[in-house]
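Students often ask what a 'structure token' actually looks like in practice. Rather than answer in the abstract, let us consider NADP-dependent glyceraldehyde-3-phosphate dehydrogenase, a protein of 494 residues. Its sequence is given first.
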Amino acid sequence: MAFYDEIVGKHGAFKAYINGEWIESRSGKFQKNVNPTTNGVAYQVQACTREEVDAAYAAAKEAQKLWARTPLWKRAEYLHKVDGLMKQNAQPIADCLVKEVAKPAKDALTEVIRSGDLISYTAEEGVRALGEGKLLTSDSFPGQDRTKLCLSQKVPLGVVLCIPPFNYPVNLAVSKIAPALMAGNSVVLKPPTQGAAAGAHMVQCFHKAGLPKGLLNFVTGKGSEIGDYLTTHKAVDCISFTGGDTGLSICQKAGMVPIQMELGGKDACIVCSDADLDLAAKNIVKGGFSYSGQRCTAVKVVLVMEDVADKLVDMVVEGVKGLSVGKPEDDCAITPVISESSANFIEGLVKDAEAKGATLTTPYKREANLIWPLLIDHVTPDMRIAWEEPFGPVIPVRRVKNIDEAIAHCNDNNLALQGCVFTRDINAAMRISDAMETGTVQVNSAPARGPDHFPFQGFRDSGIGSQGITNSLEMMCKTKTTVINLDKPSYTMG
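Now compare that with the structural description of the same chain:
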């Protein structure tokens, strides 16, 4: 049997994966996965029932008990095998990404390779970080004798629900799955519908690596039908979610369950008067328009000093002219956004800005879900695009009088994931970074999530907790202590 044959069932629909087996849902229903380029059906996935969700959680809960006692080196061995299988089978996974999320072909392959590297790094880091404990002695506290030894260790949380987004459905899935498994947890994975086919291929790599059954479960279906059931299930011990406003609802309903959330951003790019404008312009083009701006870390508003604004805008416009626009199969820089509703939302932001006096540096152009890259100049605070996240190939430019005005704009937004500042003065860069109330500030570079072992977090409505391999390993454990009580010595050392 070919590597992927068993993951596809009737009508070419991808199966769910529960308790170590690829299954077709008893619902007999499928959910369509739409190709953003053609708006036709790319793939179909199972519309799982609540009973199948129960089965996934039951399998995960049972498997986790034994996995928690599996040595760290053995867990790492499994993950290294998955890395190898993902890289050996990278092209079929990448091909799915091209069709179902319109990711440029080269970027799709890069995502899969990067994901394999993340898995292996997690295995190595997990062995080191989780293999260390801590010893406390009671006499370090005033008034205490040395009669108690406290042994502190990291133990797994239990069952982790992982929900990645459409834009990086493989990389952001394994960024959750690998730390969860390495820390001794089991996983229920709910992929985005757009991205579920690539997710099924990725899960097959875990299956073929020999991962014990029940440790990783893959449940597909409509969020409106099984979403709340998944996130409020009594078997959930942790939720790791990346996405949009849905995360706010999950937070409100999750109760005492530990949560790791990344909910998007309005990443501000501050360009100072002394900045290397060529460097800034290149980073704005790359940081704002790669994957059509459908990245939480994309440049989403440029705040530039008035005295250099004309020159910067001209340079960015020139860079935008060099971007290829078309199909992801042709490896174009700008490809269709994920859906018609997304394209309509972006268009609404553009029209609002234009109606309120903004300058479109090039004519607005759209064909179905394909929107040509656009820089919008002379944006003012009364425009929606100054504050809302377009998640598309559109960048607003607000001209500001001074640094304080730029920082105030950044800090007034409820979204605060990342930001960046361009200046030749490192002292100014550090002062601006200190003042920007956002999860990460890049100096002289566009915002970026990676490298994947760096801390990654958002403030305010952009998230809860910190991600990155080391931080995710830490978050997916809880601390347990064992106190050894010793007899008080009956003799005096002297």
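One point worth highlighting: The first strand starts at residue 13 and ends at 14. Ask yourself how you might have guessed this from the sequence alone, and why that guess would often be unreliable.
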